[in-house]
Amino acid sequence: MPLPAAFYARPVLEVAPALVGCTLTHAGVTGVIVETEAYHQSEPACHAYVGVTPRTHVLFGPPGVAYVYRSYGIHALFNAVCEPEGVGAAVLVRALEPLRGIDTMRARRGLTRPEQLCSGPGKLTQALAIELGLNGSDLVAGPVTLGPRPPGWQDVEIVAGPRIGITKAPELPWRFCALGSRSVSRPWPPEAAAALRGRAA
DNA sequence: CATGGGATTGACT
DNA sequence: GTCAATCCCATGC
Asked: Could you tell me the distance in Å between the CA of residue A54 and the C1' of nucleotide C9?
């Protein structure tokens, strides 16, 4: 069963870490989310910061809807719209661990190693065949759906750090990663690496 | 209507 | 480490 729309109708800073460990499914393949970032209209790194425009109106619409946009003219980036209707906010999904349909992902990406198939926001949309036409689509009815944490991911440890690749509001620790995953887009913040070293091997 | 800047990736020095 | 590719759209004249 997909996550219900009410899951997304909460503060984006609650939803972003809650989505780590959950599944993302489209076009025959599924991955487990291991990295997310939160974006909110109150801070300038968020596209919704400029208010309602043709580009951002999906962000201000009902929660539980996909926001897909083109980055650097090349890549599609996938977000889940959050907060009640009228508030512009979304969670960017930055990395997955492949779970089902790995050979399909390999064919789409032209790569073999599982940890490289979805280890970045532009990579996972390629592996899942998520394109701009899915902007505004319903994440409960599909075709893109998110599901609850599968077995083995119930108690995933989550670490927070600064967001990646932005120039505005870079200080906010609004990036959330599954501690220990090798499929994240960039290494964890230093504190997280220290936490990893501190645990039993 | 012209311009400039990205929530990135992969190839190359 | 550096850098180009490539396109949508917000902004300003």
From this structure: 9
pTM over the 0.90 mark: yes
CA of A4 to C1' of C5 (A): 39
Residues A141-154: what's their mean pLDDT? 97
Q: Which residues touch strand C (CB under 7 A)?
A: A 50, 53-56, 69-70, 72-74, 132
Tokens of A92: 């960017």
Whole-angstrom distance, CA of residue A97 vs CA of residue A2 = 18
Residue A105: which CATH number? 3.10.300.10
Nucleotides of B under 7 A from a protein CB: 6-10
Nearest 10 degrees: Cα torsion A15, A17, A21, A23: 30
Domain membership of residue A142 as a residue range = 5-198
Domain count of the fold of chain A: 1
Interval A87-139: pLDDT, tens:
999 999 999 999 999 999 999 999 999 999 999 999 999 999 999 999 999 99
CB A63 within 8 A of CB A81: yes
